Amino acid sequence: MNKIIIRFMLTITSMFCNSVFSQNNISGEVKDRHGNALEGANIILSSSNYQSTTNTEGFFKIENITSNNYKITISHLGYKTIEQTIELKGKDITLSFVLEDDLLSLQTIVVTGTFDSRMQLESSTSVSILNSKSIQQNYPQGTASLLQNIPGTFTDASAGEVYTKVYTRGISASAEDDTGWYYVSLQEDGLPVSLVQHSYYSPDLFHRLDLTTQKVEALRGGSSSITALNAPGGIYNFISKGIRNEFGGDIQLTNGFQGEGNSLHKIDANIGGPLGNNWFFNAGGHYRHDDGARNTDFPFSKGGQFKFNVIKKNANGYLKFYGKVLNDKTNRYTGVAAVNWNNPTPAFGQDFGSTSLLMPSFNANIPDGRNLTQGASNSFDPSQGVHAKDLAFGFDIYQDLGNNWLLKNNIKFSTKDANWQTSISNAFVSLNNPLAYFISGAGFPIGQVVFKDAQSGIELARLNNAGILAGQPIEYLTSNALPNDAIMGTSAWYKENKADELMNQFTLQKKLENHNITTGFALGFSDTSLFTQGSFAFVTYEPNPRLLQVTLENPGDPVIQLSDSNGISNYGGLFFVNSRAKVSQISTFINDRWKVSDAIHLDLGLRYETIKHKGSKDRFAPFTQDGGLDGNNNTAYDNGILAPTGEKDNFNYNYSYLSFSGGINYKIDDDGALFARFSQGNKAPELNYYFNNFSNVPINKKGEIQKINQAEIGVKYNLKNFSFTSTLFWSQLKDIGIANFEFDSSDNSIFYTPIQFNTSRTIGLEWESVYSPVQNFILRFNGIIQNPKATEWKVYDAAGSVDTSDDSIIDYSGNILPFNPKLMFNLSNEYQKDKISAFIKWQFMGKRDGNVSNGFKLPAYSIFNVGAGYQITKQLSADLLVTNLFNSEGLANFFGANSFGANANGATPDFIAANPDTSFVVFPVLRRRALLKLNYSF
After folding, report:
1. For residue 723, what are the contacts with CB-CB under 8 A and spacing of at least 6?
2. Domain of residue 635, residue span
3. Coiled-coil stretches, from where to where (predicted)?
4. Within this chain, do residues 87 and 117 fall inside the same structural domain, yes or no?
5. CA 574 to CA 623: how far, in whole Å?
6. pLDDT value for 420
7. What would the mean pLDDT of 658-671 be, rounded to a whole number?
């Protein structure tokens, strides 16, 4: 018996020892097919929490692994993923892997538009990826400028970094110039940059590009209906750099020239590494000083941002704390005058390449209409542009709970502030037009009017306008005259936008034998406010505008000052909007990825969302006091200040809807797949519905929920030297509310027309392809062919006045949907060998209709970009980039006739036929820009 007990004890001890001491170590290296070490490759052992990444030499090591059979996965952005089964039996092993180029990143894991991370080839969505190399090939003009490299994405970045437009697949109708991201979600690391949008408050205000971005994942339509907050048109997710196993980073110096010798200086930096005990950090940002592509007398952009993340890895996941501090000033260009409807050319001495028509810099204090009795004022300087501040921080948790349960939660708080001090509109206003004088707010500004340069005090013109009310021209009283016998119809435009926001995305996932079920909720809360005040500015109408000090000097009468010493007139009399709102977005979702067979996966999801808008908007009226605010009858510029009456129009509306998206993926083989998807999404109104409309009237109805139906079928294939994706789509947008911005010259009032509800439909084909016919050479080609239609479309014609007796509704059903090209593509060649790299890219934008009446077409244009790079040492590299090499004068946007308060829809075929020689406003693309980048890696 004792012998049996002893043997049993020995057996148990041996088993225990084997269990304890059968620990294994795996080491190895990862290279590309040229033999170069790959840093940052991810190594993961399946059914375990063992993982690692390669260092700068391409080496990795995983220690203390229990003996078992594992599937090891090696992945790296831009390379095909390798999976291999290994057996560990108590011995250390050394492995070596060579990764082949994944030309379209089809075997790269994507996290955007899906509830579970998966290879792009296995997803039933249209996703594109821009890696860090692709990002570095672009001029740092802004977010929208970069996204034009995504197939099927229409972008308009002609105004600069902000005031941009981005949309896909004809889902565009409410993506106006001042709310250009209406249907899509701009995200950083999986959460929206901003929760709300309204006029001149879009997410691009608070987003900047620099070295902290690792890649961009772009989803067009489809599953965005169930994976994003109120953004059925697509998701553009900028993913930050994360864990580095060794300390290192990059410092990049950029110097460039653009336009007529304007400079750009920028410094970027990003560093990261381990902090010990499974703690890691990454931090970086940039600062820039940019004089802009067009001519202004002040820097166009200056400022920067700082971003960071700190990650703690544990046995079952990680905890990440992250943050961003943005403090940046930038501006946006207004349009340029053109003539010749069939072949637009610059007018009035302006230039499509260099003219900006922005007011020069000056310092003024304009009374704040909200607090006139307290003597409050707002400082105004056009050189400030839009000053955007964003302080954001959050926590991201990823945890394996065991038994095939997975928890993820991402929560972010941000406080935002956008202050606009700039000009709006730059229309031609003839000196023979009574508007040129009455817009000052003066009672009867008729007689001798004197214009002086506001900066030098020199008299530029003296005229008699006594005959204009009878239709007679002005009479100059000296030999001097104003340029083009006109002033600019522009406003000193002051805006304050603030928002405190909280967002949270929680998901809980359970893996079954053939199902991967994900459920959770998304929350978004925003406490936001808006104040807008517009004052008229007397400015010369010429390529480099000058401010004008204007007086009425009738003999025998007191001198009446139509403007102050800076040239500002009609203080706060053009615009007044003072609103505030609390927005809550709450949604819950469930999604099932069903493995029907090894080759077929179904992806079915539902999302229920409810959005609440609660707020108020101040009523206003002109401040009434004899002599205006200062009590002086001889200062007419402060006689019409708009101020709150004390009444408020409240709104409190809920929008609830159910969205659906279902997809199927059929894996042909390891390199190819077919997919199809149908989605029914919804778009609730943004706050501009309340803020822009209902001027001094009750907000007695809520906006319409727009309905988006989309269907797509596509193929993805990944061969050794050739990869491509191609997607045929159909999209329909219903219940589109359209209202136009109008100006009534009879009483100098500005208003929006009654909303009309319309429908559009777009059918098209998107494609993305990469071909490498020989080693070191790559050809890329992506684009879209589409047929956009305004299937049911009506426009309200106010006939240029508030009076409704002469109004009418015009039916344009069946016309081509405006601002959607039928053909758009990018074609590029890339070469890289040893230390040398080069590329040339052709971007083609097809013809677009400038309005729904199809009265004016924006011509097609091409832009060529080139670049070359050289690896000077192992750490130091240099790159030269040239954008718009041949100085294309392509037109990106159209604003209608060149008159104050006009809009694009006014340029109907009848109007153009009756006014063949009139001028109109267009937005040309930005001219040639060249820069040199020096990058030091360590």
Report:
1. 102, 103, 104, 106, 717, 769, 770
2. 248-425+528-535+570-937
3. none
4. no
5. 13
6. 97
7. 95
